[in-house]
Amino acid sequence: MARLAQTAGLTELQIEILRTVKDFVDREIIPHATELEHKDEFPEAIVEGMKEMGLFGLTISEEYGGLGESLLTYALVVEQIARGWMSISGVINTHFIVAYMINQHGTDEQKQRLLPKLATGEIRGAFSMSEPECGSDVAAIKSRAIADGDDFVLNGQKMWLTNAARAGVVATLVKDDVGGDSVYKNMTTFLVEKEPGFGETRPGLTIPGKIDKMGYKGVDTTEAVFAGYRIGADMVLGTAPGKGFAQMMDGVEVGRVNVAARACGISIRAFELAVEYAQQRRAFGKPIAEHQAIAFKLAEMATKVEAAHLMMVNAARLKDSGERNDVEAGMAKLIASEYCAEVTQDSFRIHGGYGYSKEYEIERLMREAPFLLIGEGTSEIQKTIISRGLLREYRSRG
Q: Helix H segments across 85-197?
């Protein structure tokens, strides 16, 4: 058993789930990831394997056909999957967020109709908040929902949707015309149901095509264009308009723990590759691991892996306990993504010229790690969230 990134206090079921996932990653993902990634090919066989394992229903309660596991279990599973290939964790990330949001905020009818299908992977979930002219500035979104009788009509363009082409339901945040006393109280989350595929998947909803990316390949990243898309009021998440911002932020906290977990997974893999290569590669008559410059680098990498893992676990456990974890999730996402970039680059340097070759796995990790500095809010956004939370807690009494 590896020494790094171990988690104390897990149940026997959690340990068994993680052991099963790790074996699956070692057997079914790592041997095929680089080839699939270079081809930008969706991993159909791997996804089917995850369906059979029940991973799409990992956090969905048993009442709806899921496993009913905690956010911590989810995060540790994501960490292992990202260790194999970060894109695979992307296949289930937005799915988990949507399932979480429906479970936390949906009506009984929405839960009963959607969660059993999400649990089996029969339908997939996608998450839509960003737009072409706004990312973390959620108040600046322009897409709108106008009430029309018992329906709403949606217009606007959404950006950076992971899984949108393959999703059956997309949790979509838009401004509404209900009118609140704050910009954050006139936003609504709609559960937009659609057919998988590109083009006009429903009247008024178009998924134009895949966005070509530097890394994070294999998984689809797309836009969504709403042009007179009509949707029933019963597809408002929770049915009460104007609560979308708070619902989305709840989901984003889960997403930030997920991104931290993904960063931990890539860091673990980058370290594994580096420590193995450093013991095999010889220079000046001995393995390079025996040179102090490399040995110290390995020590620093391992320490960063451990620190990031512990902060990610803490953020997940806080969320599971029902406590507010915006600061801790921001801290975990910040340190895990920054350390991931550093650990991956150190592994790349240890590989020397071979690290630049597409034959070596570290080349892929070098293109995947930067995404985590941006996804679910940049490091600068995390610092804003953290500092605001700290100033709230440590308000001056002077």
A: 86-105, 108-120
Pairing of strands 187-193, 125-128: unpaired
What's the length of the chain?
398
Cβ contacts of residue 51 below 8 Å, gap of 6+? 120, 121
Query: Which among 320, 274, 279, 322 has a CA at the least distance from the CA of 301?
Result: 274
CB 97, CB 163: distance < 8 Å: no
- What is each CA distance from 231 to 13, 146, 222, in whole angstroms? 41, 10, 21
Classify burial at 11, counting beta carbons within 10 Å of its beta carbon; exposed 0-12, middle 13-18, buried 19 or more: exposed
- List the one residue out of 361, 363, 371 whose CA is nearest residue 336: 371
Amino acid identity of 321? S
Would you say residue 179 has pLDDT above 70? no
Active site residues: 376
3-class SS letters over 173-241: EEEECCCCCCHHHCEEEEEEECCCCCEEEECCEEECCECCCCCCCCCCEEEEEEEEEEEEHHHECCCCC
Using DSSP bridges, classify how beta strands 169-176 and 144-148 pair: parallel, antiparallel or unpaired: parallel
Residue 180's pLDDT band (cuts 50, 70, 90): low
Q: Which amino acid is at 7?
A: T
Which residue from 137, 133, 47 is spatially nearest to 91, judged by alpha carbons?
A: 47
Please report how many Cα atoms fall inside a 13 Å half-sphere around the Cα of residue 9, on the Cβ side: 5
Q: Which residue has the tokens 């178009």?
A: 206
Which stretch of 19-28, 102-111, 176-185, 338-347 has the lowest confidence by average pLDDT? 176-185
